[in-house]
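Encode chain A's predicted structure.
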Amino acid sequence: MEKGYIPCDSVREATSIAMEYAVDDWCIAQMAKKMGNKKDYTYFSQRADYYKNMFDKEIKLMRGKNKDGTFQVPFSPFKWGDAFTEGNSRQ
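Encoded structure for chain A:
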Protein backbone atom coordinates (compact mmCIF):
# COMPACT_ATOMS: atom_id res chain seq x y z
CA MET A 1 0.00 0.00 0.00
CA GLU A 2 2.79 2.39 0.93
CA LYS A 3 4.63 2.05 -2.39
CA GLY A 4 1.65 1.47 -4.68
CA TYR A 5 3.13 -1.82 -5.93
CA ILE A 6 4.49 -5.09 -4.57
CA PRO A 7 8.30 -5.22 -4.73
CA CYS A 8 9.52 -8.10 -6.90
CA ASP A 9 12.72 -8.38 -4.88
CA SER A 10 10.63 -9.20 -1.80
CA VAL A 11 7.69 -11.23 -3.11
CA ARG A 12 7.80 -13.95 -5.76
CA GLU A 13 5.42 -13.28 -8.70
CA ALA A 14 4.80 -9.77 -7.32
CA THR A 15 3.88 -8.09 -10.60
CA SER A 16 1.17 -10.61 -11.41
CA ILE A 17 -0.19 -10.46 -7.88
CA ALA A 18 -0.34 -6.66 -7.92
CA MET A 19 -2.09 -6.63 -11.31
CA GLU A 20 -4.67 -9.11 -10.03
CA TYR A 21 -5.22 -6.94 -6.95
CA ALA A 22 -5.79 -3.95 -9.22
CA VAL A 23 -8.57 -5.80 -11.05
CA ASP A 24 -10.09 -6.85 -7.72
CA ASP A 25 -9.95 -3.27 -6.43
CA TRP A 26 -11.63 -2.01 -9.60
CA CYS A 27 -14.45 -4.51 -9.09
CA ILE A 28 -14.88 -3.44 -5.46
CA ALA A 29 -14.97 0.21 -6.58
CA GLN A 30 -17.73 -0.56 -9.07
CA MET A 31 -19.79 -2.31 -6.39
CA ALA A 32 -19.28 0.61 -4.01
CA LYS A 33 -20.40 3.01 -6.75
CA LYS A 34 -23.58 0.99 -7.38
CA MET A 35 -24.26 0.97 -3.64
CA GLY A 36 -23.75 4.74 -3.37
CA ASN A 37 -20.67 4.42 -1.15
CA LYS A 38 -18.53 7.31 -2.45
CA LYS A 39 -15.77 6.88 0.14
CA ASP A 40 -15.07 3.25 -0.79
CA TYR A 41 -15.52 4.01 -4.49
CA THR A 42 -12.81 6.69 -4.33
CA TYR A 43 -10.47 4.57 -2.18
CA PHE A 44 -10.66 1.44 -4.32
CA SER A 45 -10.59 3.38 -7.60
CA GLN A 46 -7.27 4.89 -6.53
CA ARG A 47 -5.91 1.47 -5.56
CA ALA A 48 -7.08 0.04 -8.89
CA ASP A 49 -4.66 2.45 -10.60
CA TYR A 50 -1.64 0.96 -8.80
CA TYR A 51 -0.96 -1.23 -11.83
CA LYS A 52 0.33 1.94 -13.52
CA ASN A 53 3.27 1.94 -11.08
CA MET A 54 4.64 -1.20 -12.74
CA PHE A 55 4.33 0.04 -16.31
CA ASP A 56 7.69 0.89 -17.85
CA LYS A 57 6.93 3.77 -20.23
CA GLU A 58 10.22 3.35 -22.07
CA ILE A 59 9.57 -0.22 -23.22
CA LYS A 60 5.77 -0.01 -22.94
CA LEU A 61 5.42 -3.22 -20.90
CA MET A 62 4.60 -4.21 -17.34
CA ARG A 63 7.74 -4.91 -15.38
CA GLY A 64 8.80 -5.98 -11.91
CA LYS A 65 9.78 -3.14 -9.61
CA ASN A 66 12.22 -3.37 -6.69
CA LYS A 67 11.83 -2.04 -3.14
CA ASP A 68 13.93 0.99 -4.05
CA GLY A 69 11.59 1.92 -6.93
CA THR A 70 13.87 0.79 -9.76
CA PHE A 71 12.72 -1.66 -12.38
CA GLN A 72 14.04 -5.20 -12.21
CA VAL A 73 17.36 -5.77 -14.02
CA PRO A 74 18.24 -7.77 -16.00
CA PHE A 75 14.96 -7.77 -17.89
CA SER A 76 13.64 -9.86 -20.75
CA PRO A 77 9.98 -9.54 -21.78
CA PHE A 78 10.07 -13.26 -22.58
CA LYS A 79 11.42 -14.46 -19.20
CA TRP A 80 8.97 -16.95 -17.76
CA GLY A 81 7.97 -16.62 -14.09
CA ASP A 82 9.96 -14.55 -11.60
CA ALA A 83 7.94 -11.32 -11.28
CA PHE A 84 5.07 -12.98 -13.14
CA THR A 85 2.92 -16.03 -12.45
CA GLU A 86 3.00 -18.64 -15.20
CA GLY A 87 3.76 -16.05 -17.81
CA ASN A 88 5.91 -13.12 -18.77
CA SER A 89 5.78 -9.40 -19.47
CA ARG A 90 4.71 -9.90 -23.08
CA GLN A 91 1.61 -11.81 -22.09
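The mean pLDDT is 95.
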